[in-house]
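Subject: design request, 127 residues
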């Protein structure tokens, strides 16, 4: 999950609120050279959506996410599943983990989150 600032020049400037609408300081260019602003396409990429979901959830919970286990586009933005260590125990396989469903708008702003599951780190899902 650690990314260098070279990979994401906006990383150090990320703040909450609508300041992010001008992320990057100008008009971004799409794959065919037309501006995304002209096309009305403001959706962040999947890797950025993953980072933004983890960063904003950490800000709200005060706990660092362990991983982002899923990310998928929706009509209005992104839906991500983020795994968080809720209670550290010894041995580590008995630590309590939680899955959070995070909803982001198309610009990567957190709109909602909810805890969907709690489990021990050593637990394996059964179908």
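Subject: RE: design request

Done. Sequence follows.
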């Amino acid at each position: 999950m650690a990314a260098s600032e070279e990979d994401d020049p906006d990383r150090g400037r990320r703040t909450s609120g609508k300041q992010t609408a001008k992320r990057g300081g100008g008009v971004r260019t799409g794959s065919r050279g037309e501006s995304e602003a002209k096309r009305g396409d403001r959706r962040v990429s999947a890797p950025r959506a993953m980072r933004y979901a983890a960063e904003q959830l950490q800000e709200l919970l005060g706990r660092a996410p362990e991983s982002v286990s899923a990310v998928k586009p929706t009509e209005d933005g992104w839906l991500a599943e983020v795994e968080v260590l809720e209670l550290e125990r010894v041995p580590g396989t008995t630590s309590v983990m939680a899955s959070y469903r995070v909803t982001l708008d198309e610009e990567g702003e957190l709109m909602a989150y909810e805890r969907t599951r709690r489990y021990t780190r050593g637990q394996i899902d059964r179908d």
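Residues 1-39 have pLDDT under 50 and may be disordered.
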